[in-house]
Amino acid sequence: MNKTENALLNKEQFGEDFLWGVSTAAFQIEGAHDADGKGASIWDVFTSKKGKIKNGDHALSACDFYNYYKNDIELIRELNIPNFRFSISWPRIMPTGIHPVNQSGIDHYNKIIDFLLECNIEPWVTLYHWDLPHALEEKGGWTNRESVSWFSAYTEVCAQHFGDRVKNWMVINEPSVFTGAGYFLGIHAPGRKGLTNYLKAMHHVTLSTAAGAKILREHVSGANIGTTFSCTHIEPETERPKDVEAAKRVDTLLNRTFIEPILGLGYPKNDLSVLKKLNNYILDDDLNNMAFDFDFIGLQCYTREIVKASLLTPYIGAELVSAEKRNVISTEMGWEVYPPALYHTIKRFNAYKNIKKIIITENGAAFPDEVKNGKVYDIRRTQYIRDHLEQLLKAKKDGYNVDGYFVWSLTDNFEWAEGYNARFGLIHIDFETQKRTIKQSGLWFRDFLAQSK
Q1: Residue 48 CB neighbours (<10 A)
Q2: Active site includes 235?
Q3: What residues in the chain have per-residue pLDDT under 50?
Q4: What domains can you pick out in the chain, each with its CATH number?
Q5: pLDDT, tens digit, for every residue of 1-14?
Q6: Contact at 8 Å (CB) between 133 and 94?
Q7: Is residue 336 annotated as a catalytic residue, yes or no?
Q8: Residue range 61-71, pLDDT digits in tens
Q9: How many Å apart are CA 387 and CA 381, to the nearest integer?
Q10: 383 in a known ligand binding site
């Protein structure tokens, strides 16, 4: 895409009904970790352990969105962003993960929802963005089949208290990431490891996704119900059969394992044999109970991965060839900047005939931003967003179904194991003073969204 074509990028090209938004997550922005009766989450506990988070960072205060929510929502309005995706903290609503309900938590989210609507910003709620109540982790967390009942009860509380005003819902965020990193590799909360933990968590999260969606359908009139998946465009390092097969296995794990069962297709066991071990945990009627007819599917795409065969990697026989090794342009996260990945991802998921609507619910980049003379010139992030929007527009012009785009993220935040090292925000946060500074990328997005015919 040359500079002249890029300069012609216009909001109107995407259509009047195209959804524009920005995404956040409760644990990453809220702070106020024990305020007003909130219980501990698995991430509160995980971040307190030495050596788990870069620089020993924690999220006790994070961006203090708990107290700055009005200020930040006003910034969303200033940036002309009409849709705001945020998550609800399960332990803020139900401190032990189960009843009783913490009324202060309900009151807090009611205030956020009401103020968003007052500002003419549509709330998009994610029910679960990784912050499982620690009290439930002590009972096995997602490895315990009871987690389906726990999550169902929590979903019902949210639906009953917020469903009169919130119509756009996402059930669970990126299940492949939090189960893989948290229950197999142990590098994210709760820090469990091993195949058994992973497979149990995978199956129970899949069941919970459908169960939560059914509860929303029952309790929220006119609900627009979706759930989100992290998606990565996968390519083999070479065309040698062993690399091609390795890429296929990685693609199955990262892109197919969670979405196919909710579409009624079952787990893709034939293309990743280790998934056959799920049979140990699948009970009668589970395959029917995993499926749900979602109104939309949220896809979260940032990069592509190059894969080669590796006999040293158990279960999957493959390894990723890092962006650093390939000497390609990458972000602070070490992710290759490769905008066509978004086009390929949209095309790929359009092949599933029973996906009604696709929304890109996260896309963005982390770069080392600095405030200079009161301004943040994050030119690379601006270019990243523009280049990815070009690919999205190309997908639309080629006839593929894609109906929205949410930037990750509104503000710099606590980026899980990376701590505060990786800044993704359209708005810079000074984590010592909580001063907000809109970055050049935020100003560009504001002006882009202000365009009219």
Answers
A1: 12
A2: no
A3: 1-6, 453
A4: 13-450 (3.20.20.80)
A5: 444 344 589 999 99
A6: yes
A7: no
A8: 999 999 999 99
A9: 10
A10: no
